[in-house]
Amino acid sequence: MAEPRPVVVEELTRRFGDFTAVDRVSFQVGRGEIFGFLGPNGAGKTTTIKMLTGLLEPTEGRGWVAGLDVHGQRREIRARIGYMSQRFSLYPDLTIRENIDLFGGLYGVAGTRLEARRRWILEMAELQGQEGSVTGTLPLGFKQRLALGTAIIHEPAILFLDEPTSGVDPVARRRFWDLIDGFSHRGVTVFVSTHYMEEAEYCHRLALMNRGRLIALDTPRRLREEEARIRGSDPSSAPPPSLEEVFISRVEREGGAVLG
Amino acid sequence: MSAPLSPASLPSGPEVPGVPAQSSFRHRVALRAARVRALVRKELRQLFRDPKTKRVIFVSPVLQLILFGYAVNTDVRRVATWVVDHDQTPESRLILDAFTASDYFRIVGRGDDPSAVGRALDRGAARVGIWIPPGFARDAKAGRAPAVQILVDGTNSNTATVAQGYAQRIVNQVALEWASRGSGPGSAGAALTPGAAGIDVRARAWFNPSLESRVYNVPAVCGVIVLLMALLLTAMGVVREREMGTLDQLLVSPLSAGELMLGKTLPVAAIAMVQLALVTAVGLLWFDVPFRGSVAVLLVAAILFILAGLSVGLFISTVSNTQQEAFLSMFLFILPAIILSGFLYPVETMPDFFQTLTLANPLRHFLEVVRGVFLKGAGFSDMPFQFAVLVLMAVGGLAGATRRFRRVMG
Lengths: 260, 410
Fold this sequence. Notes:
Structural class of chain B: mainly alpha
Mean pLDDT of chain A: 89
CATH superfamily of the largest domain in chain A: P-loop containing nucleotide triphosphate hydrolases
CATH topology of the largest domain in chain A: Rossmann fold
Low-confidence stretches of chain B: 1-21, 183-200
Shape of chain B: elongated
Strand order of the largest sheet of chain B: 2-1-3-4
Shape of chain A: globular
Number of strands of chain B: 4
Order of helices and strands of chain A: EEEHEEHEHHHEHEHEEHH
CATH class of the largest domain in chain A: Alpha Beta
Radius of gyration of chain A: 19 Å
Oligomer: heterodimer
Strand content of chain A: 15-25%
Largest sheet of chain B: 4 strands, mixed
Number of helices of chain B: 14
CATH architecture of the largest domain in chain A: 3-Layer(aba) Sandwich
């Protein structure tokens, strides 16, 4: 039996009253892919992720995560994915070990497996020997990696990260992305939203969102090349446009199209 | 790669470890229990780690108990009294001595001018004035009903009524003593009763013979504390997580809404029971409140009442986005609940409409049970109505709250 694609979305829509937060978005994500979601605040990135992780019911459209329906199989989806959001910084008043054990308990990871996972998380977050420290006192970069570790304590095949590195310094961010890259090499599908342009470069494919709509979807390289072509500049002489330039001109063109 | 990854740490195939596709019923139940246990453990750790929370849980009940045990005292004692004796006879002095000897009145002034009594009451220097008119002893000896005038400051109607009653009792008593001795001081066996002699009405209060308000108030503190905590800890516990963003993290885990609810409420229920025990122990040992009933009856009532309280707390947690909102909702519930419970003001004296309203108040029924168990030794069969209502509220409240919680969190 063929393995289902990790994420398949067709015309997914979410409205809050009159406001359409996500407007008929369609895409697919392949196994082991790092799929980037790029867009300004309020573009609909978080809403999309919440629909895919079972936190929000879609208003319209269809979607499958690990082959499971986002409408009817939200609980089954939750057991198969890892999720980490920008706001999540674990329970600050619990110790590192207590936080790890809590999520172990919630995901049914126990016994020797929990011990092995705990060891792995501490190693990955470079927090060996500090299990008894209170989580709230850790520097943000460590907290973020610990949060990532607990989010994947059950070794999910699909990982949703909602602006995971916001507020973290560039060095810590870089190390975080090294980890993400490692997961991808091992076949884990990573769905990540960000508004840092240099992070977008690490993604295999990028989905550009603006005002709830998907306005571009391609590899970072092809998005830049296409932008250069549209500008009519000579790729051999002029410096290639940055992703930021791509993004801004795309958004502007989109705005123009709406007005025209 | 800056961080090491063990080779077995990530899955290589589509199977997801830890989530068997076809898990048996027993396995699923075990996983459920493990999730609830993990959450309960976390809740208790958080509650007991924070010194502020610990104070709220253990110190505030005792503090409230002391407040209600000492400060809220509706007993009338040592009422400031102004005396004018225009008779100046051994008989009039005997009456005044009886007033002084009792613990109920405290003579704060004496005068010759009857108008001084009125002035003392106006100034607030005294709450009760006693005027013995000239001819008191003469009337008594002649067998005519002698008169003593007692003026009472009626601004506090409760104190006024009680003080008036005491004063009447004291005068009656003195008169009766004279009569029973067969001869008043210098009289020829005439009854000196100010009222009608012959009928001696002696009221005896049961269950609380010395009519101490403390005995009535202290057991009731149990109910208020338990309700307050059940509401506060439940609502705040859920809403704080929503504010922090950790609630989403719990909701994307396999934890179901029902499990989340259990994990959040079980520790609160346990703490409420501990507080109940604490308040009861302090009440019995420190305030000498009697405990005449059975612990089992109190326990059953407490469990039902806590369930009703938790339901309200859960409901508030589903309608509040911030802790301030939750706090406000809680306040809007708890204030009428206390006023309409008979905790401080008896239900019987409320207007009919409000009396009917108290029937919908779980605190009213719980307080009746608590006072019944402590003071009267009442059992289930003595309070079938109260228990029926509590069962109804616990079951109905929990069902409603669960439905709402599932819909909001699911």
